[in-house]
Specification:
Length: 703
Amino acid sequence: MDKNVLDKMLRPKTVAVVGASATPGKIGYTVINNLIKGGYTGKIYPINPTCTEILGLKCYPSISEVPGEVDSAIITIPAKAMAEVTEACGKKGVKGLIVITSGFSESGRKDLEDEMLEIAAKYKMRILGPNIVGSLSNSDKFNGSFAPGLPLPGKASLVTQSGALLIAIDMATYTRKIGFDKLISIGNMADVDFADLIEWFDEDDNTTCVSLYIEGMKNGRKFIDAARKSSKPIVALKSGVSAHGSAAAASHTGSLAGAAKIYNSAFKQAGVIQAQDLNDLFNRTLTLSQQPPMKGENLLILTNGGGVGVLATDAAEKYGIPLHFAPADVQTELKKHMPEFGSAKNPVDMTGMAGNDWYYQTTKFSYAHDWTDGLVVLYCETAMTNPFEIAKSIKQAVDDSGVTGKPITVSFVGGEKSDQAMGWLVENGIPAFGGPDIAVNAMAALREYARLQENKSDGAYNCDESAKKTALAIFAQARAEKRDSLTEIEAKEVFKAYGMPVTKIALAKSEDEAVALGNKIGFPLVLKIVSPDILHKSDAGGVKVNIKDDAGIREAYQTILKNAKAYKADANIHGIAIQEMAPWGTEVILGSVNDAAFGPTVMFGLGGIFVEVLKDVTFRVTPFTKSEAAEMIGEIKGAAILAGARGEKPKDRAMLAETIYNYSCMIHDLDDEIKESDANPVLVYEDGQGLKVADARIILKAK
Ligand code: ACO
């Protein structure tokens, strides 16, 4: 990201509108009108070969005829003329193009998009869009868009892949009283992407929180890197998580919307806070733009109504910040500001008798007390109180507490007066919401942000170089034999090289050799066919288990060969694998996917029906650390089984974390080679007893 170039594009001192029009109702007219109406103080150059003046501004027939420099050009001409205009802008020395025009990759004309990018690259010009509404910046009074007007000023900035959503949010900022400094429509993301803007916002003094509406992305790793480095909270709403929704998003933006679970993991790895829906995006963005993170677990709730207190208590548990009773000294002090029948535990119920002074005293004391890490103040509108006075008391109490760096959120439940009072609170930097659960959810976002910051990984990993050499030699041998799937023996050699405990296995090419190898490995044994032409070994009758002696080996050897030939007469049979039959343990599965957005990604879950029916799996984009591998174990619903549910001993989770990590090294190191792989089942034993990869599979990428 070149900060200066993006500054010139998005906060220009001089802007041209190529395709400016004198006809009201056209986008080229609206953009000029918006720039003027918004109060933009830079120079505006309308470009149109058939006009001399638009809205009182001198019009130029082409950008080359503009006197002086042009920082940014907003493009509102049809897509077919884009190449010519891009070339002219490049020659003029324009730094960035805000391409409103549609009709590129989103509608099957990727060729036009590529042509534009190629020309822009020649001149080191950056492109925002195409297929966008434009870009708006309150602090620059720059409305370079056809959205209705600049949003309500605020400290958050939004980047959206959907232009329509920008328009919808723009005016809602006034009714919802949620301010933004910048609204940027990013459309097809042909060039400038989320990562570029996250980096750019990190250096923008007018932005304290970055809000993202994401449909899909092409370079997920760049996104993770940028988000990890960001010093500002990032909230993301990812759409297209349902199967149907994901298809809709893909056709809408021309990019691939990845699997929801992979996005969830990537957001966590990147320290990005998620929003569940549009309202949640608004609420969490507002809160994170106004309040500091909640640095500990102690949430205190003040209320004048028992019902809203209970709702808030439920929400606190639901959103991961369950309430604890306040310590005795806190309770004693709070008791002074409520009737005998109030409760100073937590939630602190001052009862319906609470007026301005009680709100002031309890807020000031609770907010300042060391025990409190976050404060939620609830109020139900009563006939004896004035919501605005209560709001002022709360704000005054916070100011008078002498404390900073601690979060507070508020909920007023009532009518118009309550709404107005909440609007005033928001204007004065205290997020306020119509529902107690929403105020708690907002606080949970601040807690989530603190936790994500504490656990944010640098993604550093340290894998064994020699393992890669072993793997590449095995792959080269398979490729020389024109195979893209490794035999189980080969796959296990690769797994073993990466430090994963695999069951002992050897290839026998004759019955006698099978007996000799079997005795070396030790009984009981499993015998399996090894043939690149028979992938589903069990279906072909190619597996015999629990073989206990020499006679058993000979019988199994003959039966497997007979079955394999019956299954596929011309199968290329390498021999029969003689394998240690590992004692049964808790079955888990490790797998890898090459995600379109995020690249090599590891999947982990409980095996058997848990993975097939319940899909109880979790993901991590590689590379990741050992502690992130350990986190994965705790994330699945079946975590309790590994922790030792129902009187069973805990399983060897330390070894499992090590194995997940080693597997991630293998997937990451060999990204160019491995198309897909899995270890299924991995048998996990009791604590200290380790685990065994009982079956392993690697399919190579075609080369
Ligand atoms: N240089 C300068 N001006 C030019 C050039 C040129 N090379 N070529 C044409 N023009 C002028 C035209 O003469 C016209 O001016 P006029 O009104 O004086 O005649 C003006 O530029 C616009 O060109 P038109 O051919 O009239 O195109 P129109 O305005 O109908 O459409 C537009 C252009 C808006 C870019 C259209 O092609 C388009 O892409 N529309 C969709 C935009 C959009 O919705 N984007 C956001 C998507 S997100 C969402 O869903 C909300």
